Amino acid sequence: MSTRARWKLPLGTAGVLVLALGAWLALDGPPPGDGAAAGPPPAAMTPDTRPAPPVFASASGVPRTKDGGLDLAGAAAAQVQAEAPAEEPSGPYPVDLDALRAKLPDNLYWDTGVPTKEPAELRRRAEVEAKWNTLFGKVQANEATEAEVQQYYEHRRKVSEDAISFATTMLADYGDKLPSQDRGLLELSVRMHRTRLSELPRQQEEALARREAHAQRQREWREKGGGRQP
Questions:
Q1: Does the reported pTM lie above 0.85?
Q2: Which of the four, 25, 59, 143, 200, has the lowest number of CB atoms within 10 Å?
């Protein structure tokens, strides 16, 4: 399939950035205490597809993920879609993904975001996602090494930086030609990923501090001759 997408592909192009962030939001709950038992790595959340009202005045109006948690990215995207006037396509979609790829050849979008139905590619993406979910579980359980903590947050930084780069380039090159709904989703993605980037240094520092506190308790436990591990 040519990357010169027609109408139904680019909504995925814009929306996939928001949905990808939705997975990070679903994973970013409050970190467990150092003494919390390590559970299985969390799975990526799939936004609920039920219709939502255009304005979310309370938590009860926000769509939820399958596990019952608030789907914040889905709520924001739904509001953008509800507020944007309906537009009918008048021809080929005004975005040349080949040109975007030439400008951003190393962007993660081409590895993780381009819509596909190829079984082999879907399996590869699932394996990559499982790898990062496993590492996330180790970070939250204070079982990751210092290098693994740094690797995890560097990956998250790369995800957000590439999402911002892709969205801002698409807006700069095609913003005046995009349907308002798609433009709104891209602008929303940029804002959300910038917020996420601003939070990463603190989150990484806190993860390293939790890891060190946990390791210190383990050292003290061993020095006392054992007993129940803290």
A1: no
A2: 59
